[in-house]
């Protein structure tokens, strides 16, 4: 069977989660690869969550928050951005392709952008092929 | 072991038309901890909710997962269902398989079903780890803040005041009134704007429950619904308003002549001036940015004594003021004065601005005879620069031909894609008013189409056609300046199927209504977000049109989107009604999905304290060692501290590590 990537998404409830809902309202099409975990703010996302998802075999992880200046909690997203710089290094150190992780700022008005980001990310993950960590660990 | 009930909604055909709901239900049946699985055509309908209540009542389930639409709209509904059945309402989780499922994956039914299963598994994983939470309540400060004193702000303030609530009405200009105060007459009844607005302005100013704060702005906002601390900056007016009687003597005496914004820059005012003749409050201000310091002395110093007369040499405004309200020897801080107020709710009614003609190089902005429609309002107003006589700006002669151009900056991908909603109607209004007064003036209206959908609007438009106003359907591509200050309008006529040129003495641009750039600053202070068009975003486009994502903050008028006065006033009254709810209840609920420190685990490292955007965390000594403590009235539950704590000692209720990790596990489990 053809390979469909499995993407775990963390979406802040004020922007990216709302943007994903708007994509639904607008009936924007995108592949059913992403499944969102709703968090209050992107600042809630512990780097460990992303590593955990990759270690458990997720092909891609997306963290979505509000644009700078729009965070519902003033600047939680800036804290996210700072954390994710370190995280990107850790991802590489742990042997994952850094491209399996994406940080995106998608507002509640950007339904189409949400759909575009998921479509594009999916394409990229198809090119990368499956995350084989789980099989490697099993072997 | 938990007893989880999973309820899969068809949402009519919305979900079931794409997702194989029976397959999802069967899948849910074998998930850990699930005891009941059911389907229903509409889970949010009465029978749907009753199904859940029955299962809870008969002890079959003690946690509920509904796989349906988005928790952003339906979580509160189902939480109430749980509450009514006697189950803690926080033992609920939603699986969004419509907005983020069937609606976006209609092209891939198999994929949509597979995704729905995973989302349900994720919700079940979280549900198994949910804990009951208790709502807490705090008292509400019995006062409201209304920001913006246009017709929207005035009506919101009046409604609340009449209900008996204390209101602070903050307006950055010297007078309330907003754009409506600049209008001549108003469609669709043609009643005079000042005649209907001025009495309401006066009523607001005199109402014992309203405190009018003009020349003022919001400097900072802290707190949360029920208890906002707001810092107001009263900008420096250089006039003692306790003494000023609004006689206007200073304005007359002032030697400065600068463009008068209220009249669209088409006449002049002094540095000392009164906003407009019907201003409320009617008080003078001195605009120091243009003051020439005619008496040649530094502000805050004593005047020089004239050798000739032995009298102090005063500035023209000081000398003219009969009540001693202007005294330039006082040391007045240029940045104005700050004042802190406490309110329970906030209504934002900051209005709009119109696009200036300089944004449109193709429409001959250099010609003084090309003006915006808002300038035309002033030009035909009895209180305007020409006393209501229609004279064109270049030579003060009566124009013979006028062209109106619609959708300037609206419905245009280069500027704004939205329709400004009022332009067709005010163009028709202006054309009619001109035609009534000067039947010999030829009027061309260049329109893409005419939008007249309000009450009595189409009749108003039809009457304009009967009056001999020429409507030309088609876009205007450009303009050329001709000799004798004429402007050639290069248009297209769809009906003729050819180009059309009109040599006009004046051109009126119906330029777009837009959000002023200052709105961004205010939005950041309050935490408001914007919609795609740049206006403030309401919580829900249909069901929560005046609420915002910030609890306790409401919207009224054009800051939420372009609209006419009838719609503005309706919305303003709606916002007042919504804002009155917490004020009347006297208490507000504190969402328990906030952070809490486990003092046993906390090492007292203090990493979390500076991270908190609300300064809600302090280190306190507990059994002789420092420990972080969170003030529940300040915490808004963002989870930034929870994510940063190196000892995992901060729990964000409703989004705990255990809950999120169980979701990750469910989403990555081999399908
Ligand atoms: C040319 C033209 C003609 C029109 N003719 C008609 C008509 O005939 N009939 C009709 O129904 N409608 C008409 N309209 C529409 C009408 O102007 C609006 O519906 C109405 O003015 C909206 O009121 P508002 O209170 O929302 O905004 P505004 O009138 O813009 O008021 C907002 C107020 O908030 C203040 N403010 C802004 N930011 C801040 C801040 N940060 N702090 C404090 N104060 C702030 C502003 O100074 C202003 O006083 C016309 C519009 C135009 C452009
Ligand atoms: S609320 Fe969206 S990033 Fe903070």
Please tell me about this protein's structure:
The complex is a heterodimer of chains A (139) and B (671). Chain A has one domain: Rossmann fold, CATH 3.40.50. Helix content of chain A is 44%, strand content 17%. Chain A is built from five helices and four strands, in the order βαβαβαβαα. Chain A is globular. The relative contact order of chain A is 0.25. Chain B folds into five domains: 130 residues, Rossmann fold (3-Layer(aba) Sandwich); 177 residues, FAD/NAD(P)-binding domain, CATH 3.50.50; 98 residues, 2-Layer Sandwich (Alpha-Beta Plaits); 162 residues, FAD/NAD(P)-binding domain, CATH 3.50.50.60; 59 residues, Alpha-Beta Plaits (2-Layer Sandwich). Chain B is globular. At the A-B interface, α1, β2, α2 and α3 of A face α4, α5, α16 and α17 of B. The structure holds flavin-adenine dinucleotide and FE2/S2 (inorganic) cluster (FES). FE2/S2 (inorganic) cluster binds next to α3 of chain A.
Shape of chain B: globular
Structural class of chain B: alpha/beta
What fraction of the residues of chain B are assigned to beta strands by DSSP? 15-25%
Any idea what the radius of gyration of chain B is? 31 Å
| Approximate helicity band of chain A | 40-55%
- End-to-end distance of chain B: 24 Å
SSE order of chain A, as H and E?
EHEHEHEHH
- CATH superfamily membership of the largest domain in chain B: FAD/NAD(P)-binding domain
Q: How helical, in percent, are the residues of chain B?
A: 25-40%
Give the rounded overall mean pLDDT of chain A. Answer: 94
Oligomer: heterodimer
Number of strands of chain B: 34
Q: Which of globular, elongated, flat, extended, rod-shaped describes the shape of chain A?
A: globular
Low-confidence residue ranges of chain B: none
What kind of sheet is the major sheet of chain A? 4 strands, parallel
Q: Which kinds of small molecule does this entry bind, naming each only once?
A: flavin-adenine dinucleotide, FE2/S2 (inorganic) cluster
Tally the helices of chain B: what do you get? 17
CATH topology of the largest domain in chain B: FAD/NAD(P)-binding domain
């Amino acid at each position: 069977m053809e390979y469909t990537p499995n993407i775990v998404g963390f979406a802040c409830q004020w922007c990216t989660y709302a943007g994903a809902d708007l994509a639904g309202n607008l009936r924007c099409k995108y592949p059913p690869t992403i499944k969102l975990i709703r968090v209050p703010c992107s600042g809630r996302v512990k780097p460990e969550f992303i590593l955990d998802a990759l270690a458990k075999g997720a092909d891609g992880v997306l963290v979505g928050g509000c644009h700078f200046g729009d965070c519902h909690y003033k600047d939680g997203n800036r804290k996210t951005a700072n954390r994710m710089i370190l995280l990107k290094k850790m991802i590489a150190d742990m042997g994952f392709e850094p491209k399996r992780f994406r940080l995106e700022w998608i507002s509640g008005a950007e339904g189409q952008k949400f759909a575009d980001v998921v479509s594009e990310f999916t394409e990229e993950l198809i090119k990368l092929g499956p995350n084989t960590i789980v099989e490697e660990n099993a072997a | 072991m938990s007893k989880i009930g999973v309820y899969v909604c068809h949402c009519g055909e919305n979900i079931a038309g794409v997702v194989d709901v029976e397959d999802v239900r069967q899948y849910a049946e074998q998930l850990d901890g699930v005891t009941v699985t059911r389907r229903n055509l509409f889970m949010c309908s009465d029978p749907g909710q009753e199904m859940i209540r029955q299962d809870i009542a008969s002890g079959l389930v003690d946690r509920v997962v509904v796989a349906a639409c988005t928790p952003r709209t339906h979580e509160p509904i189902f939480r109430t269902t749980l509450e009514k059945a006697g189950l803690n309402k926080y033992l609920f989780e939603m699986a969004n398989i419509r907005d983020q499922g069937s609606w976006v994956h209609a092209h891939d039914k198999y994929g949509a079903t597979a995704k729905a299963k995973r989302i349900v598994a994720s919700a079940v994983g979280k549900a198994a780890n949910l804990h009951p939470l208790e709502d807490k309540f705090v008292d509400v400060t019995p006062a409201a803040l209304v920001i913006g004193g246009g017709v929207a702000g005035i009506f919101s303030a009046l409604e609340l005041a009449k209900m008996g609530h204390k209101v602070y009405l903050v307006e950055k200009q010297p007078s309330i009134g907003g754009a409506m105060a600049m209008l001549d007459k108003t469609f669709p009844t043609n009643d005079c704007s000042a005649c209907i607005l001025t009495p309401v302005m006066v009523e607001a100013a005199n109402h014992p429950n309203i405190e009018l704060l003009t020349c003022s702005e919001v400097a900072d906002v802290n707190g949360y619904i029920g208890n906002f601390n707001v810092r107001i900056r009263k900008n420096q007016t250089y006039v003692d308003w306790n003494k000023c009687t609004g006689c206007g003597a200073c304005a007359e005496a002032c030697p400065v002549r600068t463009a008068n914004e209220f009249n669209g820059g088409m006449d002049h005012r002094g540095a000392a001036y009164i906003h407009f003749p019907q201003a409320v409050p009617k008080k003078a201000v001195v605009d120091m940015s243009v003051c020439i310091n005619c008496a040649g002395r530094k502000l805050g110093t004593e005047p020089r004594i004239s050798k000739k007369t032995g009298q102090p040499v005063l500035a023209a405004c000081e000398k003219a003021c009969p009540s001693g309200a202007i005294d330039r020897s006082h040391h007045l801080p240029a940045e104005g004065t700050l004042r802190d107020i406490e309110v329970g709710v906030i209504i934002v009614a900051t209005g709009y601005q119109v696009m200036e003609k300089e944004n449109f190089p193709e429409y001959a902005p250099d010609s003084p005879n090309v003006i915006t429609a808002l300038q035309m309002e002033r030009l035909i107003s009895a209180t305007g620069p020409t006393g209501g006589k229609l004279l064109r700006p270049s030579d003060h002669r009566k124009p013979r031909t006028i062209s109106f151009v619609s959708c300037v900056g609206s419905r245009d991908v280069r500027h704004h894609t939205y329709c400004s909603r009022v332009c067709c109607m005010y163009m028709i209004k202006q054309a009619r008013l001109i035609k009534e007064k000067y039947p010999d003036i030829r009027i061309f209206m260049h329109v893409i189409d005419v939008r007249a959908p309000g009450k009595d609007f189409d009749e108003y438009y039809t009457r304009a056609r009967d009056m001999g106003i020429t409507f030309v359907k088609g876009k205007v591509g450009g303009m050329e300046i001709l000799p004798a200050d004429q402007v050639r309008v290069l248009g297209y006529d769809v009906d003729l199927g050819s180009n059309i040129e009109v040599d006009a003495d004046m051109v009126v641009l119906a330029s777009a209504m837009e959000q002023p750039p200052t709105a961004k600053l205010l939005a950041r202070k309050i935490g408001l977000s914007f919609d795609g068009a740049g206006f403030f975003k309401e919580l829900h486009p249909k069901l929560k049109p005046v609420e915002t994502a910030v609890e306790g903050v409401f919207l009224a008028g054009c800051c939420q989107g372009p609209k006419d006065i009838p719609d503005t006033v309706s919305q303003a009254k709606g916002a007042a009604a919504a804002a009155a709810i917490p004020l009347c209840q006297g208490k507000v609920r504190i969402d328990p999905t906030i952070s809490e420190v486990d003092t046993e685990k906390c090492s007292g490292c203090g990493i979390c304290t500076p991270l908190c955007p609300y300064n809600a965390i302090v280190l306190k000594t507990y059994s002789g060692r420092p420990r972080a403590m969170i003030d529940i009235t300040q915490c808004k539950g963002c989870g930034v501290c929870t994510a940063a704590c190196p000892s995992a000692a901060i729990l964000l209720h409703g989004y705990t590590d255990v809950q999120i990790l169980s979701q990750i596990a469910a989403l990555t489990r081999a399908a």
